[in-house]
Design goal:
Number of strands: 0
Order of helices and strands: HHHHHHHHHHHHHHHHHHHHHHHHHHH
Largest sheet: none
CATH architecture of the domain at 335-455: Orthogonal Bundle
CATH topology of the domain at 335-455: Helix Hairpins
Shape: globular
Length: 571
């Protein structure tokens, strides 16, 4: 009997914890926290949320456990702790009993929806799409038509990020139909803005115009003067593209400038400057085109510096670490020996990480100046090559004018003389820039040899770049690259294959855009069949461009395979 005495306090404590009064209080706390969440209040008390999750794990139903872990995830999310939030949402999913008749499918739908929001912030589009698909499934199980419509509309943004043009249109039509049938034509109209871009990409300008008019008249986002509400100025970029594509350049200029003036965020500035540069270039206004092109270049440079790829990887890594730590903790409670082994393993990993970080900081400090010099050399070469292309274009224009004047009349000899002087000045500038490009190219080659960057083969170095992995994946699926991915690809080619980059840039004036991009993708081992899908043209057209490029670049007749072999010889 004496052996039972030490157990009695524990039993008393257990009975107190399981008493009806405590259980009711914990249910009230859970309901209060859920009410705060539904009122969009910021949840910051992670101690309370964790206590509720721990309590209902021991004493709650599957629905209560799922709700408690969901609210714990919401609390972590409001505190900016994305990895911990993802772990809590996974725990909520694990607690759900989808085989039970009373399973709270509404709650399960919200769990996946919140996970999708986190993946959106981290630019993990495939993960986001998976969660939205799951959320839609459970919304359908719950019979929530409004939620289904809303989730379908959210899929449009994911498909847009992934460059899946037809899927954007499909999701839009479905969401538009659902909202309209549910009696929400204003909400349906608000999503018409998303439909404009894919229809412009498909050159379906009548449909683009139709949805622009619906968006402007029924969404409620525009005032009486036709100005869109703040933070939505990106729509002006779509409207400008529509007018530019339908031959109304004055209107295109107007909306690009409106976006530049009214849209204060980085993307508005970048898109408007790029659009204006393209219009001025088409109209032969090279000075204005250069100004806006340089501004857009600076914006792109800033965008590159702001890339969050490392943060995304760290977030995913922290999330994985959190999940493994939780599993280790559960194993520790079941087996003391395993607990000690895990502690030893983590301690060893900590020491390894510590010494690795020390070594990395030492190397970083030692190499900082060299890396800065390397990047500056790359940027200088890119700018100089861009200047060469611009000057060559201007020279062609002046040469056509001179030729035309010589043919038509001698009465404008004075004007011709002035144009010839401009031409001669342009030729001198071009020679200086070409000399600069050659000098920078030589310096780049010298730097590569000095730093022993050529120890690995070109193909081995290419495979180390994340953008090459992305290219390989997208080429298999026939998906288009985003503008940011094209920029990453060109930077990789400049760094790993400076000779090929130099060769292709020097021949740029002889190639159209499709030929240039085809040569670049061929050199990176993308099959012709995949190139046609990635560039949105037919396979026979790509074959024709390959033959033409082979003749232009090497003066030879042959097929796309022959072009690939010749390009592969250049590093």
């Amino acid at each position: 009997m004496k052996k039972l005495f030490p157990i009695l306090p524990f039993l008393a404590l257990l009975l107190t914890a399981c008493s009806p009064g405590r259980h009711d209080r914990m249910k009230q706390e859970l309901a209060a926290l859920q009410a705060m969440n539904q009122a969009d209040s910021v949840l910051t008390n992670d101690s309370l949320a964790q206590a509720l999750a721990d309590y209902f794990d021991r004493h709650g139903t599957p629905n209560e456990q799922m709700e408690a872990h969901y609210l714990l995830g919401r609390t972590h999310a409001d505190r900016g702790e994305a990895p911990a939030a993802l772990a809590a949402y996974h725990d909520a999913i694990d607690r759900a009993d989808t085989t039970a008749a009373d399973c709270n499918y509404h709650q399960l739908c919200r769990v996946y929806g919140q996970m999708a929001d986190i993946f959106y912030e981290q630019n993990l589009s495939h993960h986001q799409l998976h969660c939205l698909t799951k959320s839609t499934y459970y919304a359908r199980m719950a019979g929530d038509s409004i939620m289904i419509a809303s989730l379908t509309a959210h899929m449009m943004t994911v498909y847009d990020r992934l460059g899946m043009n037809d899927s954007v249109i499909y999701a839009f039509k479905k969401a538009y139909s659902l909202f309209t049938s549910l009696g929400y034509p204003d909400i349906a109209a608000q999503y018409c803005g998303f439909a404009v871009k894919p229809y412009l990409n498909n050159h379906d300008y009548s449909k683009a115009k139709e949805y622009m008019e619906t968006y402007e008249s029924m969404s409620g986002f525009f005032d009486e003067q036709g100005n869109i509400e703040s933070s939505r100025e990106a729509y002006y970029d779509l409207k400008a593209k529509y007018y530019a594509s339908t031959g109304r350049k004055d209107s295109a200029y107007y909306y690009y400038r409106k976006e530049l003036n009214d849209g204060s965020d980085f993307n508005n500035q970048n898109m408007a400057a790029k659009g204006l540069a393209q219009l001025f270039l088409q109209d032969g206004m090279f000075d204005s085109a250069t100004v806006y092109a340089l501004y857009s270049y600076d914006m792109n440079d800033s965008l590159y510096d702001r890339m969050t790829t490392r943060d995304v990887a760290n977030t995913q890594g922290l999330y994985d670490y959190t999940r493994h730590q939780k599993i280790a903790q559960e194993e520790k409670e079941r087996n003391e020996h395993l607990r000690n082994m895990i502690i030893l393993l983590l301690s060893s990993m900590s020491l390894i990480i510590y010494f690795a970080m020390q070594a990395w900081w030492y190397f970083r400090k030692k190499r900082k100046k060299e890396i800065l010099a390397w990047k500056k050399l790359q940027d200088d070469l890119i700018r100089a090559q861009s200047d060469v292309l611009s000057l060559r274009s201007q020279r062609k224009v002046l040469e056509r004018i001179i030729l035309q004047n010589n043919v038509t009349s001698k009465a404008i000899a004075a004007d011709s003389e002035e144009i010839k002087m401009q031409h001669d000045s342009l030729v001198r500038q071009l020679a200086e820039k070409e000399e600069l490009v050659e000098r920078l190219h030589v310096d780049l080659q010298y730097y590569i040899k000095k730093e022993h960057m050529a120890k690995k083969s070109v193909e081995e170095k290419i495979m180390e770049f994340a953008i090459f992995q992305t290219l390989t994946s997208k080429s298999h699926r026939g998906e288009k690259l985003s503008e940011e991915e094209w920029n990453d690809l060109r930077r990789m080619v400049l760094e790993v294959m400076p000779g090929f980059n130099h060769f292709l840039i020097n021949k740029r004036h002889s190639l159209n855009d499709i030929q240039f991009e085809t040569c670049l993708l061929l050199r990176l081992h993308v099959p012709q069949s995949s190139i046609s899908e990635m560039l949105g043209v037919s396979a026979p057209y790509i074959q024709k461009m390959c033959k033409k490029s082979l003749k232009t670049l090497f003066g030879e007749e042959g097929t796309g395979t022959d072009l690939y072999k010749r390009l592969a010889e250049i590093c």
